[in-house]
Write a structure and sequence with these properties.
Layout (H helix, E strand, L loop, with lengths): L3 E8 L30 H12 L2 E6 H8 L12 H10 L2 E4 L12 E4 L2 H9 L4 E5 L2 H9 L5 E7 L18 E9 L5 E9 L12 H13 L1
Parallel strand pairs: 1-5, 1-6, 2-3, 2-5, 3-4
Antiparallel strand pairs: 6-8, 7-8
């Protein structure tokens, strides 16, 4: 069985829209495309390389796939930072999830999946882990179905005020444990997490005060 790993660059307020460049995703009037890159340093790129070290296939939503397909096949593979990623992405299998099926999968190694059910079946097969990049709507669907086994979150020290976010209401509740953490010189913090189990809840005091009981009653009335 494969594991699904969510890889995401997020702002401090949870936005993951268009971290790499101004033309990636300007939908809904988003004006800050490229917000992550000024904060990435050598240690941040080292953590990206750590994420890409284990064998994996890419699992992408249609919009992110189209961004990648229009960029990485044309990237100069001799570049210091991005060249290795370009070679890697160009050489591995790319699964793109598109319910409409209206996507050009001519990037070599690309496979079309029509719905989240096909992702579930793919997860049950033997093969490399499935790593997401971007793909907000797909990640929301994976979290809602409880299909995410691990997350690698690069948090960038900016507040963007709005945009497509990593987490949405409706995720299946799960606890995760931190397996690796790094604080990079330019302020990026990187947390690698794996799924642990259910949510642990602190028990309520055995003998609440009269004032606390009144507060609880008011909360119930107010809904």
């Amino acid at each position: 069985m494969r594991k699904i790993i969510v890889g995401a660059q997020v702002s401090m307020d949870g936005v993951m829209q268009a971290p790499g460049g101004p033309n990636e995703d300007p939908t809904r009037g988003f004006q800050f495309g490229g917000w992550a890159m000024p904060h990435f340093d050598q240690e941040s790129f080292d953590e990206l390389n750590h994420l890409f070290n284990e064998k994996f296939d890419l699992l992408l939503g249609r919009k992110t796939y189209e961004i990648f397909a229009g960029y990485w096949p044309y990237y100069d593979e001799s570049e210091a930072h991005g060249g290795g990623i370009a070679r890697l992405f160009n050489g591995i299998k790319k699964y793109v999830v598109s319910t409409s099926g209206q996507v050009d999968t001519d990037w070599p190694g690309s496979v079309l999946l029509r719905d989240i059910g096909e992702v579930e079946r793919l997860k049950l097969e033997n093969g490399p882990n499935l790593l997401t990049q971007g793909s907000t709507e797909l990640v929301h669907a994976l979290l809602a179905r409880g299909l995410v086994d691990a997350m690698s979150i690069f948090t960038v020290p900016v507040v963007l005020g709005g945009g497509k976010k990593l987490f949405a209401d409706g995720s299946e509740p799960h606890a995760f444990e931190l397996t690796r953490f790094r604080a990079c010189p330019h302020g990026v913090t990187v947390g690698h997490y794996r799924r642990k189990g259910g949510i642990e809840i602190e028990p309520a005091p055995d003998s609440p005060s009269r004032r606390e009981l009144a507060r609880r009653a008011r909360m119930k009335r107010e809904g």
